[in-house]
Write a structure and sequence with these properties.
With 288 residues, the chain is an alpha/beta fold. The chain is 44% helix and 8% strand. The structure holds zinc ion. Residues 33, 93, 144, 154 line the site of zinc ion (ZN).
Length: 288
């Protein structure tokens, strides 16, 4: 969303009768210009830009005899957008009636050797997006030098290179301006993430397969255990059937060991071991 400063922001003079509006069906795109000051003195502050715009308007109207400042919109290095003729009015900047009929005209407030700032590029992209809303088939973005019938250096090498890179294309992301090292870093990051994901999928599969294999192994073990037990029982029964009949009866009974009870007297049934054997009185009478 671009906020366009009005003509009053640069104290514009009213225009004279001009060329009228662009016809959408004629419009091929937008042409990029610079003022061509022939100086390296930058024009950055709002006041400096406003003053420069007013000076160019005076020059175009008073010296060249045009109806108004020649361009439609200006964009400065701080990212401000300025209404000049406005997007609907044909420009007088592109070179002749034909190219003024087929192209809009955007002025980048750049001086000799100056690179367009990120703010200038972002605002210019937004301005061009607005331009395309008015002129849907006008998608070209061209340097003035590419359309002017006579040679021109406009809009200067840095802006020409920026156009060639697509820096002013709506939707252009500054991510595309990565250095080769940053590009490689991003590539490495994506590869690492991809590998990590593949490993994760592999581990998930292996875990699931391991669970299935474990369950299957347990099933087999249970089956084998049950089968062994049944076989063993059958084998034991077969052996038992061939054994002598009294084998079980003759087997010595297992006896629990006797634990002495301290609360009762021991029963001494073997009198021979009794130190005080009872006297047999009847036998004693007979002996008298
Ligand atoms: Zn130009």
């Amino acid at each position: 969303m671009v906020e366009y400063l009005p003509r009053s922001a640069w104290n514009a003079r009213p225009p004279n009768a001009g060329p009228g509006n662009l016809t959408a069906s004629h419009v091929d795109g937008a042409v990029i210009h610079w003022p061509g000051t022939g100086s390296t003195k930058v024009i950055h502050t709002r006041t400096a830009v406003a003053s420069a715009l007013r000076g160019w308007q005076d020059y175009h109207m008073d010296t060249r005899g045009w109806s108004d400042i020649a361009y439609q919109i200006a964009v400065d290095q701080e990212g401000r957008a300025w209404t000049l003729r406005g997007m609907r009015t044909k420009s007088g900047a592109n070179g002749d009636a034909d190219v003024n009929d087929r192209y809009g005209a955007i002025l980048l407030v750049l001086v000799t050797g100056e690179q367009p700032s990120a703010a200038m590029k972002a605002t210019t992209r937004a301005v061009i997006a607005d331009f395309r809303k008015l002129y849907p088939r006008g998608t070209a973005i061209r340097p003035h030098s590419a359309v002017r019938p006579e040679p021109t250096d406009c809009p200067g090498d840095p802006a020409r290179a920026a156009i060639a890179r697509g820096d002013f294309n709506p939707g252009h992301s500054e991510d595309d301006d990565m250095t080769p090292a940053q590009m490689q870093e991003l590539k490495n990051f994506i590869e690492a993430r991809t590998q990590a994901y593949a490993l994760w999928v592999h581990k998930q599969l292996r875990r699931d397969l391991t669970a299935v294999a474990k369950a299957y192994a347990l099933d087999i073990k249970n089956y084998e255990r049950q089968t062994d037990a049944a076989d063993a029982a059958r084998a034991a029964a077969a052996v038992w059937a061939t054994a002598p009949k009294n084998l079980a009866a003759d087997a010595p009974a297992q006896q629990e060991p006797q634990v002495p009870d301290p609360n009762t007297d021991p029963k001494l049934e073997d009198h021979a071991l009794d130190p005080f054997p009872p006297v047999e009185e009847a036998k004693a009478e007979e002996a008298k």
